[in-house]
Amino acid sequence: MNNTPRGNRLHIALFGKRNVGKSSLINAFTHQKVAIVSEFAGTTTDPVYKSMEVLPLGPVVFIDTPGIDDEGALGELRVKKTKEVLRKTDIAILVITSDFKWGEQEEELISQFKERNIPFIIAVNKCEKINVSNNFLDIKGISNVSVVKTSTLTGEGIEKLIKELVELKKEEDQKLHLVDELVKAGDFVILVTPIDKEAPKGRLILPQQQVLRDILDNGAMALVVKETELEQSLKKFSCKPDIVITDSQVFDIVNEMLPKEIPLTSFSIIYARHKGDLDLFYKAVREIENLKDDDYILVAEGCTHHRKDDDIGTVKIPNFLKNKTGKRLNFHHVSGGFFKEDISKYKMIIHCGACMLNKKEMEYRQVFSLENGIPMINYGIILAYLHGITDRAMKPFENKF
Question: Cα separation of 186 and 87, whole Å?
Answer without folding.
Answer: 38
